[in-house]
Amino acid sequence: METLPGIVIMGASGRMGRMLTHGVLQSDKARLIGCVEKPGHPWVGRDVGEAMGGPRVGLHVTDDAVSAIAQAQAVIDFTAPAVTVATAELAAQARAVHVIGTTGLGDEDLKRLKAAARHAVVVRAGNMSLGVNLLVQLTRKVAAALDEDFDIEVVEAHHRHKVDAPSGTALMLGQAAAEGRGVALSEVEDRGRDGITGERARGAIGFSSIRGGDIVGEHDVIFAGAGERILLRHVATDRAVFARGALKAALWGQGQRPGEYDMLDVLGL
């Protein structure tokens, strides 16, 4: 067991943190060596198994990210931008693979992740599932095949607690559509409509966001032309698909050269 990669989970109490913790505990390819939460969190000092409502597993949640990551071969991080950027610096110092599922990262955040990737493997994706990454590839190919007579709209739906919009996955899909058309997404994106907006701009890539209930994640890419529509869709019903993808990325990153990667690299797509 000691030869298996040791993995640290950031934000262990969150929805994805719990799923990731459970996934690593069940894996025969990795060891769970750390679960990190913010100082003052009620889970700190507790056995993570008991904190999740199950049996003891012999590992206590810590608020000492520095010590936890220093021992790790990989860190899986579905937290918040500020936490992720700080974690990237620690993972780079430890030469640990940093798997990032955090969304809502800004330009300055991405610059700091790029700096960290000079020293360690950084795998970042708005979505870790196989199905979504296949959808990204399909979106790029369909966009390349169709001209601007077809309007592109990315529609995403998530649970009521999600704090950012559009989702990271929606932005991945929009970026793929823009690449397929050979344009910069920043020049053609349309993220909101309200009031008298006028007609849709030719070539625009639109985004629509739905928030409600406990929706895990639904993404549609609509290519709407005169008299016909093409719909590409992915529906996630279980967060375990994201946890499995993140663990796959953490294992894939072992032995890779430092740099920035995504799930298409991990999946060989």
UniProtKB/TrEMBL annotation:
Belongs to the DapB family. Pathway: Amino-acid biosynthesis; L-lysine biosynthesis via DAP pathway; (S)-tetrahydrodipicolinate from L-aspartate: step 4/4. It holds the Pfam family DapB_N. This is 4-hydroxy-tetrahydrodipicolinate reductase. PANTHER family: 4-HYDROXY-TETRAHYDRODIPICOLINATE REDUCTASE 1, CHLOROPLASTIC-RELATED, DIHYDRODIPICOLINATE REDUCTASE. NAD(+) binds at G11, A12, S13, G14, R15, M16, E37, G101, T102, T103, A125, G126, N127, M128. The gene is dapB. It catalyses: (S)-2,3,4,5-tetrahydrodipicolinate + NADP(+) + H2O = (2S,4S)-4-hydroxy-2,3,4,5-tetrahydrodipicolinate + NADPH + H(+); (S)-2,3,4,5-tetrahydrodipicolinate + NAD(+) + H2O = (2S,4S)-4-hydroxy-2,3,4,5-tetrahydrodipicolinate + NADH + H(+). Catalyzes the conversion of 4-hydroxy-tetrahydrodipicolinate (HTPA) to tetrahydrodipicolinate. Its EC number is 1.17.1.8. NADP(+) binds at K38. It comes from the Bacteria.
